[in-house]
Amino acid sequence: MLEVGDILICRGNSWISKGIMLITKGKWSHAAIVAETWGKQGVIEAQSNGVNFKLWDVWVNKWGYKYEVFRNVSEFDKKALMLIAFDKCGETKYDWFTFFRRAFGNRKQRSNDKENKRYICSEFVAYVWDIPQGYDITPDELHKYLTQSIQWKTV
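Given the sequence above, the corresponding structure tokens read:
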């Protein structure tokens, strides 16, 4: 059973997912956070239309991702985490600059700006969870970090 705050590291069969995996030379193309509002479970994620909440069934039916679930083993305030995540919904844009910079092989990192108004999916997840060096992290790099961290377990 999924819980609020779980991180989903995903891959899909769409040309976009395959392109992201090709660009990043990884096995993962997307990251999202399990969220809940008004008693409804869903995910918060950064997609091409920015950071938004999607109900679980809508998300699963639209994307059909295969995913791994990571859960933080520490006690944390789920409400506070959701406030951080939902604060970025609706107004935060997708970071096309980072996406295309990565596509053309430029790994130069931008500054660690916590008030950044644009994110790729894995940067957004890293921002919400305050993951070190998360301001320029790919889904594959995030997967590696979560797998190696003692703070996270695979569910």
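Helices lie at 15-24, 56-63, 78-86, 96-103, 121-129, 139-148. Try to locate this feature in the token string yourself.
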